[in-house]
Automatic annotation (TrEMBL):
Protein name: Glycosyltransferase, activator-dependent family
Record has Glycosyltransferase as a keyword: yes
Residue span(s) of domain Erythromycin biosynthesis protein CIII-like C-terminal: 270-415
Tagged with keyword Glycosyltransferase: yes
Amino acid sequence: MRVLIATQAEKTHFLGMVPLAWALRTAGHEVRVASQPALAEVIASTGLTAVPVGRDHMFHHLLRSAKSLGLDEDPGFDMAEERGEVLTYEHLTRGVGQFVTWWWKVVNEPMLDDLVGFCRTWRPDLVVWEPTTFAGAVAAQACGAAHARQMWGADLFGRMRGLHLRLMAGREPAERRDPLREWLAAAAGRFGGEFAEELTCGQATVDHLPGSIRLDTGLPLLPMRYVPYNGRAVVPAWLREPPSRPRVCVTLGGSAPERLDGRGLGAQDMLDSMAGLDVEVVATLPARERAKLARVPDNARIVEFAPLHALLPTCTAVAHHGGAGTYATAMLYGVPQLIVPQLVTAQYLFDERTLGERLAEQGAGAVLTGDVTAERVSAALARLLTGGEAGQQARRLRAEMLAMPDVHAVVAELEKAVSSRRGRSVYGP
């Protein structure tokens, strides 16, 4: 069968899709990856076939413009919000409207027409799209393909969609407003289609989070064991030697330092907080962040990059901002986590807090929010490193992840879905 991977030009979102894409490819299927031109070289570097569509989006330019205009003090709509008294119909409708206007339209509209055009020419049997690339669902409908969403983090999208539908059901029809439906109906209508609820969350959702952590959305689900992928990597010589004392990884994530405002707690405070602990600290910091350091503690090693799937198995703990890739990789290797959402920016809140809280509930880590200081970081990390409970629970989550269906089993399920849809073998003409 022909499979199209659709993603807006966000590197970290795409990298999480690479293992499934390659599993489909090695199963004998034709696979192409469609995104805006800015991501074409990244796609090609993974060995997959890139199809540049449309023009590059301006989302990160908008974020920088908001900062320069002093508009970034307002955190905006928080998709991780869970308090019922806050999540009123009015609040949720206004928040979804903001996301549609300032996020989802911005990253999708520049690629939508060209993506549909390519799909109608190439005729994929299946489209797999990451959760902000609604253009993938619209294009699948326009060419008659099956489609599935592949998550990179907590499914706040599906949870909020379900809540919004329930709140709307309690209103009079004339009072109901659904910004996401309005936009997707107009987008599908451009190509002769119409709104269907599956345009919002796919016909199925591929999710790599274990059941203990995963959000319950009630959506059709394809659980898949996580496969770490950071792109091309070389294991440095120092990493081949076992550490002489507990090793703690500190990482700011793959894209956060570049994309965000840098007004969070920061690498310097994190390193200072660990200077008095009997640990070896390995901090992965881009050159720009390393240049900001005024001092490096004696127990710290600073490197620009180390493949997390090689580094984390040697670690006793990891401290990070809650990035989805770091989070899942640490879980897969049974490493306790200290999550500090404000590590890289004062306003960086998407699913970091949710992921951190759910991990803490399982006893496999800790999350620090509110007024985060170096002293709080040091105390929290010391608790993770002593007693053994966090390590035990982290290993339990690792076992739960290892028991999930592997990527090849998910390929088989996708093949079945496509075969049943078109009534013949996926390997047929």
